[in-house]
Amino acid sequence: MSFVLEGGEEPAARYCEALEIAWIGASLGGTHSLVCHPASTTHRQVPPEQRRASGIGDGLVRVSPGIENPEDLLRDFSRAFTALKAG
Fold first, then answer.
1. Which residue, 6, 11, 72, 73, has fewest beta-carbon neighbours within 10 Å?
2. According to the 3-state scheme, what is the secondary structure of 73-85?
3. In the structure, what pLDDT confidence band is assigned to residue 79 with cuts at 50, 70 and 90?
4. How confident is the model at residue 24 (pLDDT cuts 50, 70, 90)?
5. How many other CB atoms are found less than 10 A from the CB of residue 41?
6. For residues 21 and 79, is the Cβ–Cβ distance under 8 A?
């Protein structure tokens, strides 16, 4: 699952940092929910124009849901969106 945040790299990185349940990780696997901001991690060394041509925009956030309680995850993701708007 993935989504794109408006504003590019800075809001996407801030969003990932605001999460409390989901961890930031470059490798999306395992039982814990993870998020990845490809523009600053896995695809950081790919030129921005090449990333965008491949569908990897600066605001892209990838999510690998884990086995946590779905309601807890929804609250965490909602809270991080609220923090992003406020910040």
1. 6
2. HHHHHHHHHHHHH
3. very high
4. confident
5. 15
6. no
**Burial code of 17-32, b = ≥16 C-beta within 10 A, e = fewer?**
ebbebbeebeebeeee
Alpha helix stretches (DSSP H) within 1-87? 9-18, 48-53, 70-86
Our measurement of the distance from residue 22's CA atom to the centroid of its chain's CA atoms, rounded to an integer in Å, reads 9
* d(C-alpha 65, C-alpha 53), whole Å: 26
pLDDT digits (tens, 9 = 90+) for 45-58: 999 999 999 999 99
